[in-house]
Amino acid sequence: MKPKKESIHEPGGEYHAGFQVQLPSSLLQLGLSKDDIQGRIVEWVVLLLFTEGRISSGKAARLLNINRLDFIALLKTRGIAYINYSPEELAEEIETAKHLTLRAES
User: Fold this and answer.
1) When comparing pLDDT for 85 and 55, which is higher?
2) pTM of the full predicted structure?
3) Distance between CA 46 and CA 60 in Å, rounded?
4) For residues 17, 71, 62 and 51, what is the CA-based torsion angle, rounded to 10 degrees?
5) Whole-angstrom Cα distance, residue 22 to residue 103?
6) Cα separation, 18 vs 8, whole angstroms
7) What is the pLDDT of residues 29-70, one digit of tens each?
8) Which DSSP string do the residues of 71-95 spell out, in sequence order?
9) Given a cut of 70, is residue 73 above it in pLDDT?
10) Distances (CA, A) of 8 to 15, 33, 65, 75
11) What are the residue boundaries of the structural domains of the chain, listed by start?
């Protein structure tokens, strides 16, 4: 069954798509309200898009209605690296830092 969609226009120009999602009722028995679950789903989707590199940290923060520093703190809370270097990128960063340190010392 396809999710039911609806669009809601919010003041300030944002459009919000509504989806009906089927979740186990036992989630509500864990002390989560429907609003809590909705907020967590939105957070999860935004974090997923960020970790996939599809949106920037600034865009992610705006989507969650928080500032960028709070978004970075949220990443830490959720165990997600803000900077995720490949081994090659990390080696390059270390070399650059060493080079800058040597220049500063001379």
Assistant:
1) 55
2) 0.66
3) 6
4) -60
5) 59
6) 7
7) 888 888 888 899 999 999 999 999 999 999 999 999 999 999
8) HHHHHHHTT--SS---HHHHHHHHH
9) yes
10) 6, 22, 17, 28
11) 56-106
How far apart are alpha carbons 33 and 42 in whole angstroms?
14
DSSP string spanning 2-54? PPPEEEEEPTTS-EEEEE-----THHHHTT--HHHHHHHHHHHHHHHHHHTTS
Structure tokens at 46: 């935004």
**Taking the C-alpha atoms of 39, 45, 46 and 47 in order, what is their torsion angle to the nearest 10 degrees?**
100
What own/partner pairs with CB < 8 Å and gap ≥ 24 does 45-49 have? 47/74, 47/75, 47/78, 47/80
